[in-house]
């Protein structure tokens, strides 16, 4: 088309691949290869060819991870995870798709796709043409100028100068200066600490270029920003080189080579047929191929081509119900066929217990589209007044569902999948894949912002209040088992849950990309479902005899302490009664510091008793000792025997995946997260967790992981150096803060430094440190002031983190997890201070949680590939516990240590301490 003004359309292929992969549910080709990203990419190319927006067309790809930027800064993009397993085979298929459409495919080793795009855009403009870049990538916005614009592939809207100014606060030619100052955590571009998007834009608006800003820094008003601009000037200059796109790349193909060419219909049709994209064949008018094969629809999810291009699923306004009660196998088969046709199905179970391992499935519900759901009852009992009528045999239902549950081409969607998978496993269903979990999809992007239960998510995202469990079963003494709920009412409740789950998935799944939580969900939360299900199923062996012996000992000691308490008070009373204890402490003994609760009684929680004990009062200390023994006796010594599976002598804790604000796991029935670690009694409890005959337990514990994360995120050079040299971090801190040589460091000084190190992580106050070290608040304040004077970067980190929390309502872990901080803007000073301490700690505790989750997923893949007879049993905070054949213990210990230390790459190395023993206490 030599007579036309060249209009070059460049598709950011690398960027679109990941968007399509994460936006669309799992799909497979007829030969079982994952193709959801290929499908999304194909539909995008189809749209471009349909609209014919340019005279020249090319798709630009990244050739590899290593580019010239890694020579400038080896850590550039270093923390980016490897592509998901399901995406890797799709890279070559997407290049095949490009060829099938007769479109040029371009990549160049040593250069990023963005550099090629910049070079081609420059080339076509210099030749009098114009360029449209199909991408919404912010890094490409620096290229916008007369003749060059971006086209957002999701919204199908152009991005020009006005849109860039709205995003960055500056014109396109100044975007690089802003990015150099603010850095980019996604690509690991350092920037200048403490300068965010707004601050960077203001500096550029006021001073001009980056060099102008750095030159003016010494004359700026004294502030932390001025100090950082001076201190990190070289980092800013390096960041500028990293974010500036190279527009001088040798062009692998000339502009003439990229002229638009019609695809060969036979070639394209054959390729689409091979992929199984028959609906795409029909939309492109290539129906002869589909007809020849007798195919009429694609195995993909039932979305329109527009939806596929944009990575969105259109929500239906369908009413909630009426729903179908399935009582014949013919009807069940129709639902199964519908699930295969659309490629997605929401699944929910109804049981007779909240404990998944004890629960019996009395029915299940399915939903294949909004407003369309059913309930399949198995074990409803009915009454004389309301008989259930015909129900299906559970074993045969599950047998008919097995092909659906195992089909890679159909996504199974759950709300709290781990519970349902455990229920299905107990009923004999061993494998359900692939799955999505709306609870975890929500949790990955909103931990701490709100609860993750189905009802709350429905009201929040759908504006719909589901039927409550109490509404169908009653409450209190009038509550009936769900198996006795009449089928009509049971269907309304159960099928609605599946319908709501499907609708939530349609809303929440696309938001993962918007909230930058895709990798977190795909690489940590979703894989952990199966990992934790397996761990819960295995359980851990306990020594019932030791537990009973322990319980008797605790009871005897409690009785002795109780006698001493009664003797000191001068009369008997119920030591376990907070009301009676408060009257004795504050009415009779007239001890200071008493405060009444809203009910009017005296408060006697542990903080009150600890304060009184620190003042030298013996009675509160005895009460604390009695309470600790009472808790250990009831929560562990007695409860573990009751919770033990009598056949296997194992207990099976339930891991809670979406409870904490920071991403940490919690557990219940039994709760193994709160066993005291540093007390003699806590050690005794761990002594009761034992290995099976012929096996031992291996404990692997991250060493000082939160301090390492603090050194990493706050860039504290003395701490970084101490970790790199393998020094005693607490002794080094004591030496730095108190000016005492490392050699001959006394234990008391080291203990004080240790208290400060760990206290800082939790935002400890001078009063809190004083209580911990039993010194005056003034002396504690002097210690903290000396600490911050030696490590000013830590204070900067704390202040910066608090400001980020106040601005956004959340803080980020180093791996991108959002940890919401309720109360950060509270007008009440005490609540706000508590929230600020949470904000300071959340990136560290959350970062540690992310790392050990990465390790667990990593080990779930690598451990089965070894010959080691071992299995992962427990995760408790920073520790993993394994059971292994005694002959393999040393090898497992080394293997786990290596895998856990490689789970993440920080500025300091991760260190894992391992131990081997016949009991948890011996191994820890």
Quick gist of this model?
Helices cover 50% and strands 11% of the residues. By secondary structure, it is an alpha/beta fold. Strand 19 (810-812) and strand 20 form a beta hairpin.
Description:
The chain has 924 residues and is of the alpha/beta class. Among the domains are: 7-256, Rossmann fold (3-Layer(aba) Sandwich); 324-515, 2-Layer Sandwich (Nucleotidyltransferase, domain 5), CATH 3.30.420.10; 655-707 and 808-924, Alpha-Beta Plaits (2-Layer Sandwich). 50% of the residues lie in helices and 11% in strands. Helix 18 links the parallel strand 11 (411-414) and strand 12 (435-437). The radius of gyration is 31 Å and the shape is globular. It has 38 helices and 23 strands. The N and C termini lie far apart (74 Å). Helix 31 (729-738) crosses helix 32. The strands form six sheets. A six-stranded mixed beta sheet has the order 3-2-1-4-5-6. The protein has a six-stranded mixed beta sheet with strand order 7-10-9-8-11-12, with helices on both faces. It has a four-stranded antiparallel beta sheet with strand order 21-22-18-23.
């Amino acid at each position: 088309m030599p007579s036309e003004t060249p209009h070059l359309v460049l598709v950011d292929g690398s960027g679109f691949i990941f968007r399509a992969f994460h936006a669309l549910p799992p799909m497979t080709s007829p030969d079982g290869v994952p193709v959801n990203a290929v499908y999304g990419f194909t539909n995008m190319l189809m749209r471009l060819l349909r609209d014919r927006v340019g005279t020249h067309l090319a798709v630009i790809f990244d050739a590899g991870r290593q580019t010239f930027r890694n020579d400038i800064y080896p850590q550039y993009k270093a923390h980016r995870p490897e592509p998901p397993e399901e995406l890797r085979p799709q890279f070559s298929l997407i290049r095949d798709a490009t060829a099938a459409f007769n479109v040029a495919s371009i990549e160049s080793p040593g250069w990023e796709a963005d550099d090629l795009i910049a070079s081609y855009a420059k080339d076509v403009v210099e030749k009098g043409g114009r360029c449209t870049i199909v991408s919404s990538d912010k890094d490409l916005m620096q290229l916008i100028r007369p003749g060059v614009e971006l086209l957002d592939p999701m919204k199908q809207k152009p991005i020009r100068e006005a849109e860039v100014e709205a995003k960055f606060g500056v014109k396109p030619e100044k975007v690089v200066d802003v990015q150099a100052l603010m850095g980019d955590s996604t690509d690991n571009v350092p920037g200048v600490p403490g300068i965010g998007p707004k601050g960077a834009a203001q500096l550029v608006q006021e001073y001009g270029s980056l060099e102008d800003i750095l030159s003016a820094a010494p004359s700026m008003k004294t502030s932390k920003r001025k100090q950082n601009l001076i201190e990190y000037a070289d980092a800013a200059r390096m960041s500028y080189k990293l974010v500036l796109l190279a527009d001088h790349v040798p062009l692998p193909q000339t502009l003439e080579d990229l002229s638009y060419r019609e695809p060969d219909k036979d070639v394209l049709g054959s390729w689409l047929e091979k992929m199984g994209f028959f609906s795409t064949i029909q939309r492109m008018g290539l129906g002869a191929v589909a007809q020849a094969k007798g195919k009429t629809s694609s195995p993909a999810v039932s979305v329109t081509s527009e939806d596929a291009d944009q990575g969105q699923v259109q929500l239906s306004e369908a009413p909630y119900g009426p729903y179908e009660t399935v009582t014949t196998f013919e009807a069940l088969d129709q639902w199964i066929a519908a699930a295969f046709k659309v490629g997605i199905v929401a699944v929910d179970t109804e049981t007779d217990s909240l404990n998944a391992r004890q629960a019996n499935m009395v029915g299940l519900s399915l939903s294949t589209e909004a407003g369309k759901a059913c309930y399949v009852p198995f074990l409803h009992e009915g009454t004389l007044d309301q008989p259930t009528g015909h129900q299906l045999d559970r074993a045969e239902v599950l047998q008919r569902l097995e092909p659906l549950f195992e089909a890679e081409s159909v996504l199974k969607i759950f709300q709290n999948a781990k519970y349902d998978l455990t229920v299905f496993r107990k009923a004999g269903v061993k494998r359900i894949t692939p799955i999505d979990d709306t609870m975890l999809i929500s949790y990955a992007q909103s931990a701490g912002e709100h609860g993750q239960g189905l009802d709350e998510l429905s009201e929040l995202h759908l504006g719909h209040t589901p039927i409550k469990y109490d509404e169908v079963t009653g409450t209190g003494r009038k509550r009936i088992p769900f198996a006795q709920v009449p089928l009509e009412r049971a269907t309304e409740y159960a099928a609605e849950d599946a319908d709501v789950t499907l609708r939530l998935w349609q809303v929440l799944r696309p938001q993962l990309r918007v909230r930058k939580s895709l990798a977190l969900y795909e690489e940590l939360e979703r894989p952990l479902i199966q990992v934790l299900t397996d761990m819960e199923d295995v359980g851990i062996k306990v020594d019932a005899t030791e537990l009973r012996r322990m319980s008797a000992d605790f009871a005897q000691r409690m009785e002795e302490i109780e006698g001493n308490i009664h003797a000191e008070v001068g009369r008997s009373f119920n030591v376990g009664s907070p009301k009676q204890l408060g009257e004795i402490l504050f009415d009779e003994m007239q001890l200071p510091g008493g405060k009444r609760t809203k009910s009017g009684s005296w408060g006697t929680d542990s903080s009150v008793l600890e304060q009184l004990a620190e003042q030298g009062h013996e009675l509160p200390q005895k009460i604390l000792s009695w309470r600790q023994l009472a808790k250990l006796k009831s929560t562990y010594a007695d409860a573990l025997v009751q919770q033990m599976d009598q056949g296997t002598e194992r207990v099976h804790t339930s891991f809670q995946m979406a409870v904490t604000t920071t991403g940490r796991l919690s557990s219940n029935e039994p709760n193994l997260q709160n066993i005291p670690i540093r007390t003699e009694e806590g050690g005794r409890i761990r002594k009761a967790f034992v290995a099976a005959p012929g096996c031992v337990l291996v404990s692997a514990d991250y060493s000082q992981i939160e301090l390492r994360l603090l050194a990493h995120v706050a860039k504290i050079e003395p701490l970084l150096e101490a970790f790199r040299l393998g020094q005693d971090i607490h002794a080094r801190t004591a030496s730095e803060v108190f000016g005492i040589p490392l050699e001959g460091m006394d234990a008391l000084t080291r203990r004080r430094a240790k208290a400060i190190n760990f206290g800082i992580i939790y935002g400890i106050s001078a009063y809190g440190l004083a209580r911990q070290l039993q010194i005056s608040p003034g002396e504690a304040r002097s210690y903290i002031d000396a600490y911050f004077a030696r490590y000013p970067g830590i204070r900067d980190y704390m202040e910066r983190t608090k400001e980020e929390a106040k601005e956004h309502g959340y803080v980020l872990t180093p791996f991108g997890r959002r940890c919401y901080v309720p109360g950060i803007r509270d007008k009440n000073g005490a609540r706000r201070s508590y929230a600020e301490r949470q904000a300071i700690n959340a990136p560290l505790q959350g970062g540690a949680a992310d790392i050990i989750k990465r390790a667990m997923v990593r080990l779930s893949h690598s451990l089965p590939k070894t010959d080691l007879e071992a299995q992962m049993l427990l995760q408790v905070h920073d520790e993993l516990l394994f059971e292994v054949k005694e002959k393999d213990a040393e090898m497992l210990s080394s293997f786990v240590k290596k895998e856990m230390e490689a789970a993440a790459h920080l500025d300091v190395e991760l260190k894992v301490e391992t131990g081997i023993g016949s009991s948890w206490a011996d191994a820890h």
